[in-house]
Specification:
The structure holds two protein chains of two kinds. Chain A is built from eleven helices and twelve strands. By secondary structure, chain A is an alpha/beta fold. Chain A folds into two domains: 219 residues, Rossmann fold, CATH 3.40.50.300; 87 residues, no CATH class. Chain A has an eight-stranded mixed β-sheet, with helices on both faces. In chain A, strands 2-1-4-5 form a four-stranded antiparallel β-sheet, covered by helices on one side. By secondary structure, chain B is mainly α. Chain B has two domains: 57 residues, no CATH class; 285 residues, MetI-like (MetI-like fold, Orthogonal Bundle), CATH 1.10.3720. Chain B has 13 helices and no strands. In chain B, helix 6 packs antiparallel against helix 11. The longest helix of chain B is centred in the middle third of the chain and has 37 residues. The two termini of chain B are 35 Å apart. The chains are: A alpha/beta, B mainly alpha. At the A-B interface, helix 2, helix 4, helix 7, helix 8 and helix 9 of A face helix 1, helix 10 and helix 11 of B.
Chain lengths: 328, 349
């Protein structure tokens, strides 16, 4: 059984007097224990909303969540709020994009780590603080004893994200969802944080859902990658399949828009035409059609289905990039 | 462990376990260059050291101390704090500073007292006499005490009630919020002094407590709305979402996250409210709605009764209390504004 089995997850935002907006449209994917799965896509494609829906953290009003989120066989969407709250931070944790604003500015770092242990493991403050120091040490924060009493604004951005990782992993959850955990950091720090995350999830056997728009992150980290477009999965593949033989024109475009060292000098980067605002609704055809180089008539006649590929992935495309032609 | 991100194109090292897609993965060369750390290890170590050093410069500085440090660089804050500090010192040490008992009538003053002449500076009485033959300087000094007392109590009462109402509205939301906020709307709709006057007039017997209470009540809606507003903003904040993601209970979300982070704004407002409380209390005394005790030295009373009645005879009786009220209120306002700036997260670091 998969650790996480997301089935036909949909999130529709509905504000009074506004047209309903489908941010996540029947998204399905699975995460095996200890595996790292990527959710990749442009800004606005529904990555964060997907993760918040899994965590049960969407606002109470103004949206409708459909489908199933099976965690170890239990549908999280059907849990009572209190039961779900008991699992958050203990069995499933999440790290957010901005490490400074994700920490409580008026509570010292050490106490913030300790409070999770008190909440979920019933530790007393003293014991929790001792463990907090070890956790800060484990995520590579220098001089952890002193950091315990420092406030978030007193430490660097990289250290804050390390502290957040320590908090998220304090109770050794089975699943960690990281929503663009390095986007707010310097490039050099990004690499350090990703290495640390990789090492920690490998050491503890925690499964990781890595949300990113950065294919470099995917390249170094993920076992399987789900590419999202307009709230739907358009391609799913094992990492090396994806990088070697991207089939969906969108994935293809994403890969080609990344600078590479082995490309001929002077060659221009290929940006994907247009922007997300050019999307057509999935009900009328393929949302990507207006930006697609491979568009055929069928693309405007209805949404293409997500179909298994020969290489064990899934693809939602009428006219995929041919298998023989590798990227560029 | 080697770094999968910095080793572009190399097979990704995995620790032990046999997961799908582990062994023979070769991300196409170039794919991961985007996140390569370009610095060598030695340089990185050096930078880490620098980062550590600069971080330890700030070591142990709390949020409050950080704000205080910023305040000390701001001349407005220094002027405000000096005035406030001096005022508080005078108020506390009034018995030591004042040359005389503020209620004692002195023969050498009363004997020269007539309806159209009040003695000015004489030996032992540098500020001269008040209309009852008491030492004016001593009464001014004791007036600081009374002003501080009224201001502190009124502000504390207003703050406590306001914080309570605002916290309940912000924490519960829904109809509780609607009802409480309509209530504060009503209070805010009335001019504050008018509301205070009404309250004092409604009290059967006026004392300094009616003044304190009236001035406090007037500040309640301001504190309540302020706190509720920042609680609502906090509810939407990233750290509250992050806390929810950790399973923190709703009670602790309110008490540990929303409330403490909303209080800074309230503390600043308290400083500003103090200035208004002093002015309002003085105004009530001036209008004759204050404490009827003629022995109590109080600037508003001194200005309203003695200053007004004997303005032609001895204008200093009006000038000095008026000046004291204005300067002290100004001091608190300057300090409050500077504090507002200092705690603004936009100015942090
Ligand atoms: N509370 C909300 N109410 C209405 N619409 C929302 C809400 N939250 C998100 N959306 C919409 O849902 C869509 C998906 O948003 P989401 O935050 O998941 O994007 P994302 O893929 O995480 O993008 P990014 O890379 O910018 O973080 C967006 O178009 C956004 O405007
Ligand atoms: Mg997002």
């Amino acid at each position: 059984m998969s650790l996480l089995d997301v089935r036909d997850l949909s999130v529709v935002f509905q504000r009074r007097g506004e047209r309903p907006f489908t941010a996540v449209d029947k998204v399905s994917f699975t995460v095996e224990p200890g595996q790292t799965v990527g959710l990749v896509g442009e800004s606005g494609c529904g990555k964060s909303v997907t993760s918040l829906a899994i965590m049960g953290l969407l606002p109470k009003r103004g949206n409708k969540v459909g489908g199933e989120v099976l965690f170890d066989g239990t549908d999280l969407l059907k849990l009572r709020p209190n039961d779900m709250r008991d699992r958050r931070g203990r069995e499933i944790s999440m790290i957010f994009q901005d490490p400074l604003s994700s920490l409580n500015p008026v509570i010292p770092i050490g106490v913030q780590v300790a409070e999770v242990l008190e909440r979920h493991q019933g530790r007393d403050r003293k014991q929790a603080l001792r463990e907090a120091r070890d956790l800060l040490d484990a995520v590579g924060i220098p001089d952890p004893q002193r950091r315990l009493s420092e406030y978030p604004h007193q430490i660097s951005g990289g250290m804050r994200q390390r502290a957040l990782i320590a908090i998220a992993l304090a109770c050794k959850p089975r699943l960690l969802i990281a929503d663009e955990p390095t986007t707010a950091l310097d490039v050099t720090i990004q690499a350090q944080i990703l290495t640390l995350l990789k090492q920690l999830v490998d050491d503890t056997g925690t499964a990781l859902v890595m949300i990113t728009h950065d294919l470099g992150v995917v390249a170094g980290l993920c076992d399987t990658v789900n590419v999202l477009y307009g709230g739907k999965v358009v391609e799913r593949a094992r990492r090396h399949e994806l990088f070697a033989h991207a089939r969906h024109p969108y994935t293809h475009g994403l890969l080609n828009s990344v600078p590479r060292l082995d490309s001929p000098r002077g060659e221009r980067l290929h940006a994907i035409r247009g922007s997300v605002s050019d999307n057509i609704p999935w009900t009328e055809g393929c949302a990507f059609a207006p930006r697609c180089d491979n568009v055929v008539d069928a693309c405007l006649e209805g949404p293409p289905p997500l179909e298994p590929t020969a290489t064990g992935g899934d693809l939602r495309c009428n006219n995929p990039v041919s298998e023989e032609v590798t990227v560029r | 462990m080697s770094d999968p991100i910095t080793q572009a194109g190399a097979p990704t090292p995995r620790s032990g376990n046999d997961k799908p897609g582990s062994g023979d993965d070769k991300p196409r060369p170039g794919m991961s260059e985007r996140s390569i750390g370009v610095l060598g290890d030695r340089k990185k170590a050096r930078l880490d050291e620098l980062a550590r050093a600069s971080a330890s410069d700030r070591g142990g500085v709390s949020l409050v101390r950080d704000a205080v440090r910023r305040l000390r660089r701001n001349p407005v804050a220094i002027v405000g704090a000096s005035i406030v500090g001096l005022f508080i010192l005078v108020a506390i040490f009034a018995p030591l500073i004042a040359p005389h008992d503020p209620v004692q009538r002195f023969d050498e003053l009363t004997k020269n007292l007539t309806v159209d002449s009040i003695p000015g500076a004489t030996a032992g009485h540098p500020f001269g006499s008040d209309p009852l033959g008491r030492d004016f300087l001593s009464r001014m000094i004791y007036g600081a005490r009374q002003t501080l007392f009224v201001g502190v109590l009124a502000t504390l009462i207003g703050l406590s009630l306001g914080v309570l109402i605002g916290a309940i509205a912000g924490a519960f939301g829904g109809w509780v919020d609607v009802v409480l906020m309509r209530l504060t709307d009503v209070m805010l709709a009335l001019p504050s002094l008018l509301l205070a006057i009404t309250l004092v007039a409604m009290a059967s017997r006026s004392s300094q407590w009616t003044v304190i209470f009236a001035v406090a009540i007037v500040s309640v809606p301001i504190f309540a709305r302020l706190l509720r507003g920042s609680m609502l903003a906090q509810r939407e904040s990233d750290h509250v979402l992050a806390a929810r993601a950790l399973g923190v209970k709703e009670r602790n979300i309110v008490l540990r996250h929303m409330l403490p982070n909303s209080l800074t704004a309230v503390i600043v407002q308290a400083t500003l409210t103090f200035a208004v409380a002093i002015l309002d209390a003085a105004a009530l005394s001036f209008l004759g709605l204050g404490d009827p005790d003629i022995n109590r030295a109080e600037w508003g009373l001194m200005l309203g009764v003695d200053g007004q009645r004997y303005f032609e005879v001895r204008p200093e009786l009006a000038y000095y209390p008026a000046l004291a009220i204005i300067v002290v209120a100004l001091g608190f306002t300057l300090l409050g504004e500077a504090m507002r700036e200092a705690i603004d997260p936009k100015n942090r670091r």
